[in-house]
Amino acid sequence: MNAIKKTKGRQKIEMKRVEHEAKREVTFSKRKKGLFNKASELCELCGAEVALILFSPHLKPFTFGHLDANEVLQRYLTRRDDHSPGPVSRNVLHQLNGVREQYNESLKRLEEEEKKSKDQKSGTSSSGGFWWDDQQIENFNELDELEQYVESMEKLKKIVQARLDEIDLSENYFANEFINDQNLLDQNNFSLIPHSNDFYGV
User: Which GO terms describe its cellular component (predicted)?
Assistant: First the structure.
């Protein structure tokens, strides 16, 4: 009868620092070899380019590279530098800053135009006078612009004159109504305007 060998089988190793120095050196050597083997398999199976750098507990360096560790590391560093702002990126940033400045300037001009439009509707200008006070005739470079300005002023003059006529008509209307009412009251011995004798009770 064959003797049955009793073993604990493959046990899960607890992940913690190996305190014994000699055992720690052995563990590092085995793990390093296993890590390099896995990296080699990754390169052969997938065509990956791998670079590994390890330092032993005594700070002795070990490297693995496919095809060459230095070449892989240099390529990694170069790709990282490509992500930093280069000449192209700086040009893009400069263009973005220019667009942002143009946007802010356009927004400022829009606000000024809106304010000017409100001032024109209210009949005032930014200087406190009327909106036409802000117009500088010497700034008109074309005859058409000056003619349009004169035409606008003529239209404004007609509008103002029409408004004055309306006010005159209203005043005349109320004045005539007052006179008619006064005449009607006079006929009945009443008056809308008190006489001086009324203040003294005479």
Answer: nucleus
Name the residue range of residue 102's domain.
91-131
Are 199 and 145 found together in one domain? Answer: yes
CA gap 32, 137 in Å, rounded = 88
Is-above-0.85 flag for pTM? no
Measure the CA–CA gap between 69 and 75, rounded to whole angstroms: 10
Q: How many separate domains does the chain show?
A: 3
What is the model's pLDDT at position 33? Answer: 93
Backbone CA torsion sign across 62, 65, 71, 75: negative
Exposed / middle / buried, residue 188 (Cβ in 10 Å: 0-12, 13-18, 19+): exposed
pLDDT tens digits, 115-147:
777 766 665 555 555 555 555 555 555 666 667
The C-alpha angle with vertex 195 and arms to 192 and 198, in degrees rounded to 5, equals 105
Contact 50, 65 (CB under 8 A): yes
Mean pLDDT of 148-169: 73
Q: Count Cβ atoms below 10 Å from residue 22 Cβ, excluding itself.
A: 8
Tokens in use for 162? 């029409």
CA distances 183 to 129, 173, 174, 192, Å, are 45, 15, 14, 10
